[in-house]
Amino acid sequence: HIENLKIRFLTSIQKKFIIWSPKLAAISSLTPANIELFSINIDNKSRQARISGEAKTRDDLLSYKQQLETSSLLKEIDLPIENLLEAENVNFEIKAKLPWSKKNIIKYIWI
């Protein structure tokens, strides 16, 4: 009986497990050389992502935002206007929603 409980417990953990590294690598691969990422934070429960970093110029940051918008990796990209006040060496934080759910997560795993 205890073995069955252990198996059920491990199975429930396995069902909740998400392989993040391919997704993070895909987001990172969209990042041009003139953008330095400091962090990518993902909150699976709220389906939110936060990307922070520094762009060499404001135009570089706007171009990066456009790349993220045209990809299928994130949706509802939010780049606050405060992030665009500087012309050079622009620190930024982008917020976005994760487009995948437990049902379609396999579509977003790249190898």
Please write the string of helix (H) and strand (E) elements. Answer: HHEEHEE
State the end-to-end CA separation.
39 Å
Mean pLDDT: 83
Walk across the major sheet and give the strand order: 1-2-4-3
Given helix and strand content, the structural type is alpha+beta
Radius of gyration equals 17 Å
Question: How many H/I helical runs?
Answer: 3
What is the count of β-strands?
4
Unreliable spans: 103-111
Multimeric state of these chains? single chain
What portion of residues is helical?
25-40%
Global geometry: elongated
Give a short account of the largest sheet: 4 strands, antiparallel
Tell me the β content: 25-35%
Quick take:
With about 110 residues, this protein is an alpha+beta fold.
Please render the helix and strand layout as text:
Elements: H1 2-16, H2 21-29, E1 35-43, E2 48-57, H3 58-70, E3 75-78, E4 88-97
Please give a structural write-up:
This protein is of the alpha+beta class and 111 residues long. 33% of the residues lie in helices and 30% in strands. The chain contains 3 helices and 4 strands; from the N terminus they run ααββαββ. The protein has helices at 2-16, 21-29, 58-70; strands at 35-43, 48-57, 75-78, 88-97. The chain has a 4-stranded antiparallel β-sheet with strand order 1-2-4-3, with helices on one face. A hairpin with a 4-residue loop joins strand 1 (35-43) and strand 2 (48-57). The protein is elongated and about 65 Å long. The N and C termini lie far apart (39 Å). 14% of the residues are buried. Mean pLDDT is 83; it is low at 103-111.
